[in-house]
TrEMBL record:
Residues 13-115 form the Cyclic nucleotide-binding domain. This is Crp/Fnr family transcriptional regulator. InterPro entries: cNMP-bd_dom, cNMP-bd_dom_sf, Env_Response_Regulators, HTH_CRP, RmlC-like_jellyroll, WH-like_DNA-bd_sf, WH_DNA-bd_sf. GO terms for cellular component: cytosol. GO terms for molecular function: DNA binding; DNA-binding transcription factor activity. Residues 148-216 form the HTH crp-type domain.
Length: 222
């Protein structure tokens, strides 16, 4: 528990706070372990907390009311905060949150955290910084959806995992393919087709292991 609290204190939301404020944060935080696919909070539910991923993965999803279809809007990895938009205002969660693996989540009481932020404006500044980053990520996702094909999105993701200056690369995907599909804004079947299309660029995907025979060829595929 103590080690997990140390991890929470490294959250971007609490960057630069004093030891006294950190102790107050500890007092309004609890850590809960969620099983794979367990709901952390439903979409539209009355908001009572802000969250931080200690380890594991969290899917943020939106559901279309008419059809009931669900889509991933973000994948939160360890070290990421979600629900920070509620720190200054807001009543309900705008997405659902669901564990995508066995996941430890730090849960901060919303009302108490708002009071703390009122006394320590650095928390509001940090929340604004996180929201700005999330907004930039949303814009990148929208532009990729409008401007890039599925193979191009996958190629760019793979390039981001290649060591700087490498001619070839091999790495393991950090999560299951269905999670990667959600992260890239693709349906699972579209991700599979993208893998097949990138084979001509020297990309081989076997399970969660990705082998890139030519980084230059992969870059050209973008």
């Amino acid at each position: 528990m103590l080690q997990k609290l140390r991890s929470v204190r490294q959250s971007e939301l609490f960057r630069g706070v004093s030891a006294e404020v950190a102790a107050e944060i500890d007092a309004i935080c609890r850590i809960k372990t969620f099983s794979n696919n367990e709901v952390i909070h439903p979409e539209g539910e009355l908001a009572v907390a802000i969250f931080y991923v200690v380890n594991g993965l969290v899917r943020l999803t939106k559901t279309e009311a008419a059809s009931g279809r669900e889509a991933d809007v973000s994948i939160c990895e360890p070290g990421e905060t979600f629900g920070e938009y509620l720190l200054t205002e807001g009543v309900n969660y705008v997405t659902a949150a669901r564990a995508a693996d066995v996941t430890d989540v730090a849960i901060f009481d919303l009302m108490k955290l708002r009071k703390l932020a009122g006394r320590h404006p650095i928390l509001q500044t940090n929340a604004a910084r996180i929201m700005s980053r999330h907004l930039s990520e949303a814009f990148r996702c929208i532009s990729a959806d409008r401007l890039q094909t599925a193979p191009q999105r996958v190629a760019n993701y793979f390039l981001g995992r290649c060591p700087e200056g490498a001619a070839q690369a091999s790495f393991r995907l950090p999560f299951q393919k269905r999670i990667l599909a959600g992260k890239l804004g693709l349906a699972p079947e579209a991700l599979s087709r993208a893998f097949a299309a990138l084979a001509d660029a020297g990309v081989n995907v076997h399970g969660r292991t990705v082998t890139i025979l030519s980084v230059a060829s992969l870059r050209a595929a973008c």
